[in-house]
């Protein structure tokens, strides 16, 4: 209950970074191996050969997958199925810029009426429910929200259940699209918690009116705390001083992200540069920036931040997506252009570039040919000028 309440109010801090898929697979396998072995259940991964990386907090993804795998384990154990297998399937959807994660079990499944009831219970006040399936789904839906995704549950009674969510690929367009879609949903009106709890108390099988022998689906979005301004946010860049070492930059990245709420974003575009989107309007963003700078000076013992002039933008998905892509791309290109170097610069650990005798000989020969050609043209021009000069 404490964990669910903290997630519901956005108290879990995230550390989003570039994460390879294999890292997540290894963490999940290690955490669930003992429990699955006790029940004689195999955990299989499909699609882990992908070469794409993801922009996520690996701890959040791992915790969500572990929750879903343990739920699947309990479903299979209760159904006493002969096929004791859980499949974690990962599919990269490149045109959407996301990876779709699915946890599929062969348990007893859920009826459509149970799915509808689950959707309401998973939105209920944590003080009014126990530690059952509804609480587990509440925690899972909040973890999915920290990944800028909803939690989708598909199930058929007697056949099994599939629970899926999405994570953005580590690419500016994919990150901007996922975050813009996540913020867009808060512009819409949400159902009051009290009305949902009242509906749950009077809910029964006949009130749903859907046959239980067909496949059902529910989608669970973030539920709980809301952004300060659902219709707008502030966007800008922050830079570290060039004198800051790489270790300080890495520490600042973790520290900066720990200050963010579930409705905010910070993307590291270079070693000492970040693009941020903060939950603030034009009346509060100045105060927020000053507080971040003051806390950074206290944490690192020196003034090391420089903020660009922030802009206030709408949270409409298309508008926010376009602006974020432009900011991240511009920041990355600006950082690359500002790196000092020479034409003879090479990678560390390689030999310096030396003049090649063959290339030098070819260059001398080409220069000699061009010189002779230009002399012939000059002589020809002089002859033509003499011919047309009046006597």
Quick take:
The chain is an alpha+beta fold and 391 residues long.
How is the topology of this model organized?
Blueprint: H1 2-8, E1 17-20, H2 21-39, E2 42-46, E3 53-56, H3 58-79, E4 85-93, E5 98-104, H4 112-121, H5 133-146, E6 151-156, E7 160-168, H6 172-184, H7 193-202, H8 205-208, E8 216-220, E9 232-240, H9 246-258, E10 265-270, E11 273-278, H10 285-300, E12 305-307, E13 311-314, H11 317-337, H12 357-388
Parallel strand pairs: 2-4
Antiparallel strand pairs: 1-3, 4-5, 5-7, 6-7, 6-8, 9-11, 9-12, 9-13, 10-11
Helix pairs in contact: 1-5, 2-3, 3-5, 6-11
Structural class based on helices, strands and sheet pairing: alpha+beta
Low-confidence stretches: 125-132, 189-212
- N- and C-termini, Cα separation: 110 Å
Following the backbone from N to C, one meets helices and strands in this order, namely HEHEEHEEHHEEHHHEEHEEHEEHH
Mind summarizing the main beta sheet? Answer: 6 strands, mixed
The total of helices stands at: 12
Determine the strand fraction and express it as a percent band.
15-25%
Task: Determine Rg (CA atoms, Å).
Answer: 30 Å
Overall mean pLDDT stands at: 82
Number of strands: 13
Query: Which descriptor suits the 3D outline?
Result: elongated
**Residues in helices, as a percent range:** 40-55%
Spatially, the strands of the biggest sheet line up as: 2-4-5-7-6-8
């Amino acid at each position: 209950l404490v964990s669910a309440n903290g997630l519901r109010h956005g108290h879990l801090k995230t550390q989003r970074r570039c994460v390879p898929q294999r890292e997540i697979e290894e963490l999940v396998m290690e955490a669930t191996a003992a429990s699955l072995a006790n029940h004689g259940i195999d955990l299989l991964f499909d699609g882990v050969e992908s070469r794409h990386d993801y922009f996520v907090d690996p701890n959040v993804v791992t915790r969500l997958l572990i929750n879903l795998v343990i739920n699947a384990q309990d479903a299979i154990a209760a159904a006493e199925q002969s096929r004791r297998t859980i499949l974690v399937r990962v599919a990269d959807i490149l045109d959407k810029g996301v990876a779709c994660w699915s946890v599929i079990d062969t348990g007893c499944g859920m009826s459509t009426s149970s799915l509808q009831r689950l959707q309401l219970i998973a939105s209920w006040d944590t003080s009014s429910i126990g530690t059952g399936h509804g609480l587990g789904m509440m925690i899972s839906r909040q973890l999915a929200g920290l990944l800028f995704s909803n939690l989708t549950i598909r199930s058929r009674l007697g056949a099994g259940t599939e629970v899926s969510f999405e994570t953005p690929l580590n690419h500016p367009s994919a990150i901007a699209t996922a975050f813009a879609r996540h913020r867009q949903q808060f512009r819409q009106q949400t159902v009051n918690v009290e009305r949902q709890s009242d509906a749950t108390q009077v809910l029964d099988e006949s009130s749903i009116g859907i046959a239980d022998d067909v496949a059902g689906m529910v989608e669970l979005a973030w539920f709980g705390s809301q952004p300060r301004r659902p219709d707008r946010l502030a966007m800008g860049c922050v830079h570290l001083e060039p004198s800051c070492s790489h270790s300080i930059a890495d520490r600042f990245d973790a520290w900066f992200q720990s200050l963010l709420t579930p409705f905010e974003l910070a993307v590291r575009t270079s070693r000492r540069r970040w693009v941020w989107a903060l939950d603030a309007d034009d009346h509060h963003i100045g105060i927020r920036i000053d507080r971040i700078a003051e806390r950074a000076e206290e944490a690192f013992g020196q003034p090391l931040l420089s903020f660009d002039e922030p802009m206030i933008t709408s949270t409409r998905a298309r508008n926010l997506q376009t602006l974020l892509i432009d900011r991240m791309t511009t920041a990355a290109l600006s950082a690359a252009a500002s790196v000092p170097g020479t034409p003879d610069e090479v990678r560390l650990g390689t030999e310096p570039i030396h003049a090649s005798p063959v290339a030098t000989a070819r260059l001398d020969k080409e220069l000699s040919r061009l010189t002779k050609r230009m002399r012939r043209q000059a002589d020809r021009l002089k002859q033509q000028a003499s011919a047309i000069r009046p006597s």
